[in-house]
Amino acid sequence: MYSALWTHSQVQPVIKSTSSRKQVGILGGNFNPVHLAHLTVADQVGHALGLDQVYLMPEAIPPHVDTKTTIDAKHRLAMLELAIAENDLLAIEPFELNQGGVNYTYETMRQLIKDHPDTDYYFIIGGDMVEYLPKWKNIDELIQLVHFVGIKRPGYKTTSDYPIIWIDVPLLDISSSMLRKKIKEGCSTNYLLPQAVKAYIEKEGLYLD
């Protein structure tokens, strides 16, 4: 089994000073809404691995058996743009939104690599998702296309049958579902969302139903 636990003090930057290849992280998700835990993971991984950039990649329709309901993509995209506006390390990859429908990681990454052959991709997932990798579509082919980065989570193993770069990121117990519930119930979301995202949600009257 593969197990590589890298912390900020241990990890060596991946950037190759003599190479023209770009090193890019990908953090996929519904981002309904994007919150501080998403941004912390993206920023921490980007700095820990010395990546050129980390792209947040919103899903069009999540490819899950337990289908998730979500708001219009235009709102999720607008909130992402507001959330990353002051961080040059972070950017948005709209590929799956532009494609529409259900997208699988293997198909998405195969196309992104075809479009950007000079880029090495680091696909970021939570430690709780690592055990589900055997069920991912074309996983054996996918691990040949990307480097998987696992975020340590309490109670989950840091070993896998697949090569995983493990990164230790400060744990923020925030979820989009929890935020939607708080907003609907009229509770405070201060210090859980970027202020610009919070203001956008209030302006557009999102998550009140």
UniProtKB/TrEMBL annotation:
EC number: 2.7.7.18
Xref: InterPro entries: Cyt_trans-like, NadD/NMNAT, Rossmann-like_a/b/a_fold
Enzyme class: transferase
Domain of life (superkingdom): Bacteria
Molecular function via GO: ATP binding; nicotinate-nucleotide adenylyltransferase activity
Keywords for the protein's UniProt record, in alphabetical order: ATP-binding, NAD, Nucleotide-binding, Nucleotidyltransferase, Pyridine nucleotide biosynthesis, Transferase
Record bears the keyword Nucleotide-binding: yes
Catalytic activity: nicotinate beta-D-ribonucleotide + ATP + H(+) = deamido-NAD(+) + diphosphate
Keyword Calcium: no
Pathway: Cofactor biosynthesis; NAD(+) biosynthesis; deamido-NAD(+) from nicotinate D-ribonucleotide: step 1/1
Coiled coil (UniProt feature): none
Cytidyltransferase-like domain residues: 26-181
GO biological process per UniProt: NAD+ biosynthetic process
Family from the record: Belongs to the NadD family.
Free-text function comment from the UniProt entry: Catalyzes the reversible adenylation of nicotinate mononucleotide (NaMN) to nicotinic acid adenine dinucleotide (NaAD).
PANTHER family per UniProt: NICOTINATE-NUCLEOTIDE ADENYLYLTRANSFERASE-RELATED, PHOSPHOPANTETHEINE ADENYLYLTRANSFERASE
Record-linked HAMAP family: NaMN_adenylyltr (MF_00244)
Protein's name in the database: Probable nicotinate-nucleotide adenylyltransferase
